[in-house]
Amino acid sequence: MLLNLLFYAALVVLLGIRCARFPGRLREDFTSHARSAGFFTTVAATGVLGTELVLRVAEPGAAWVLWWVALLLWLGLVY
Question: Is the entire prediction scored with pTM above 0.90?
Answer without folding.
Answer: no
